[in-house]
Design a protein that fits this description.
It is a single chain. This protein is of the alpha/beta class and 120 residues long. Helix content is 22%, strand content 29%. It contains 3 helices and 6 strands, in the order βαβαβββαβ. Strands 1, 2, 3, 4, 5 and 6 form a 6-stranded mixed sheet that branches. The longest helix has 12 residues. It comes from Suillus subaureus. This is CHAT domain-containing protein.
C-alpha cells in the first residue's frame, strides 16, 4: 500500500456568519485518529485555512478532510463552495486543481445536505 498523506482543513471562525464551534474539537479527533495511520498529517486551521494554502496542500496530500461553512448550488453543483478564511474554495476548482492521486475526501460543511424541494 502506498503512503497516505492527509490534509485537514478547518474554518470555524469567519468574520461573517455563525461560528462553527464543532470545528476545533472535530479537528482534534481527526488528528488523534489518523496521525498514527497516515504517513504525514497537515493541518490548516482558521487563519491558515486560505484558498491558496488549500490548493498547495492538495498538491501534496491524497486524503482531504474539510470542516467549514459550505454553500451548495443546486442549479450548478460545481459552483458549490467551502468558506476559507480569505475566499471561497469552489468544487470546480478542486476538480480542476493539480490534486495528485486523490483517494479520499470527507466534507463536513453546513447546508450541504439541506436538499431542495425536489429531493424532500
Amino acid at each position: 500500500m502506498s503512503p497516505q498523506h492527509f490534509v485537514d482543513i478547518g474554518q470555524g471562525n469567519l468574520d461573517e456568519g455563525k461560528p462553527l464551534e464543532c470545528v476545533g474539537p472535530e479537528l482534534v479527533v481527526v488528528a488523534r485518529c489518523l496521525t498514527p495511520v497516515v504517513s504525514s498529517f497537515t493541518l490548516l486551521k482558521d487563519s491558515d485555512a486560505i484558498v491558496e494554502g488549500a490548493f498547495d496542500a492538495l498538491n501534496h496530500n491524497q486524503w482531504l478532510h474539510l470542516a467549514c461553512h459550505g454553500t451548495p448550488n443546486r442549479q450548478q453543483p460545481f459552483e458549490s463552495s467551502f468558506a476559507m478564511c480569505d475566499w471561497l474554495l469552489m468544487v470546480k476548482d478542486i476538480i480542476w486543481s493539480n490534486w495528485q492521486d486523490p483517494q479520499f475526501a470527507f466534507l463536513l460543511a453546513c447546508h450541504t445536505t439541506a436538499g431542495d424541494e425536489e429531493s424532500r
